[in-house]
Amino acid sequence: MSFPSHLKLLWAYLTTPLRPNVHGGYFEGKLSQELIYRLACLGFNGTVGAYGSVTAIGDACESKQIRVLLSPFLPWPAGRVHPPAQAAIPPHPAGIESP
């Protein structure tokens, strides 16, 4: 969003009794609901199995502009090599050490 769009949204949020729903879209899409329910009910490995691979999940998310960051603490599916832990950790701001 551009800066003027942010200002318009802030103005609408502060001045109208019916505030804009700024987070509802996350839960209304078919893919996001599917991911939420599968992860909650099947866990990570079950979700990977349902999609066929981690790459397939990533491709589905990328097609809907959903950003995915995998935790290095996830149990990786059997028979697969877990990527290096540092690959999933975003860089730290200057002056903050990595765990």
Please sum up the structure shown:
With about 100 residues, the chain is an all-alpha fold. About 50% of the residues lie in helices and about 0% in strands.
Which key phrases capture this entry?
mainly alpha; elongated
Walk me through what this model shows:
With 99 residues, the protein is mainly α. It has a domain at 25-70. Helix content is 49%, strand content 0%. The radius of gyration is 18 Å and the shape is elongated. Residues 84-99 have low confidence and may be disordered.
- List the helices and strands in order: HHHH
Distance between the termini: 33 Å
Kindly name the structural category: mainly alpha
Largest sheet: none
Give the overall average pLDDT.
Answer: 78
Radius of gyration: 18 Å
Quickly count the helices: 4
How does the SSE layout of this entry go?
Blueprint: H1 3-15, H2 25-28, H3 30-51, H4 54-63
